[in-house]
Amino acid sequence: AAKFDGKGRFRFFDYEMDTRARRRLFLEHELRGALQRGEFHLAYQPIFSLATGRICGCEALLRWRHPRLGLIDTQECISVAEDSGQIESIGEWVLNAAIRDAAGWPDSVRLSVNLSLAQFINPALCDTILTSLSEHGLPATRLELELTESIFLRDTTDTEGHLRALRAAGIRIALDDFGTGYSSLAYLRSLPLDRIKIDRAFVQAITTHPETAAIVRAIIAIAKALDMDTCAEGVEGGAQLTVLRAEGCDTVQGFALAEPMAPAALAAFLTGNITVPALVAASRSAAE
Ligand code: C2E
Ligand code: MG
Ligand code: MG
Ligand code: MG
């Protein structure tokens, strides 16, 4: 579409881009008071051990319910928070709330929390986390931080130092969305990591695309050789589970097993000893 710019000149105008930019500006503005207004909550998605079929962890996922717009897409919310310098305060709220909740879970259930780059590079991060852990009585060994390959874009000596400090405190580190970013085998070799989370783009193609299955197999082999464990993200079907089990993947997470849920629903899930039909079926087909 074209329109006059007021000075008599004709200008092309992209309404869609304009709408998107306006929405972002609006969200950025609305995000400013969201923490104080109590508009955030957390959802927890269980992570299961493939060997035992039991829940071994939960990932905390931020949820923002805007009073007028309703639930905002989390990716969009995080991206606006990162670009507008709000991720550190929001991230600190997430860490505190999640650590508080996880302190009430069984010892066998670990807490995973996603961290943005700006949080990771903050020199105070480790102390802030340790304070929160001791306040709520959660052992550091029950906490896992999920970082993406974006940390590799930075000076590696710095990155390595931060990772070592967190791990020295007993906190585990997982590399999230592995395979979608700037993955480099050199980083895997030199950085202290505990777990690789295989991105759902790979997991979901594992049964239909032999090349993808080969890549997943290779990722699992590399992780094992480097003494890291693996988690497959975004498992949506039983057939994917069967392949992941055969390939020796350690843990799984996805809608086929359990969707992200409110803290109360998770508490019921944890105490009810609820079995997951897809996992039972996958272990049955493995035994046959
Ligand atoms: P992520 O860390 O990779 O989290 C997994 C995302 O995949 C979640 O989306 C989850 O709801 C979704 N998911 C889980 N199972 C399935 C499945 O079987 N199929 C499909 N299609 N999706 C599945 P969500 O909650 O919208 O979060 C999106 C991203 O936002 C997260 O990706 C993470 O990068 C970021 N994020 C979420 N919470 C936080 C937070 O507290 N802090 C930071 N820095 N980032 C966060
Ligand atoms: Mg994650
Ligand atoms: Mg992920
Ligand atoms: Mg992600």
TrEMBL record:
Protein name: EAL domain-containing protein
Stretches assigned to the EAL domain: 24-274
Residues of the full protein shown: 504 to 791 of 798
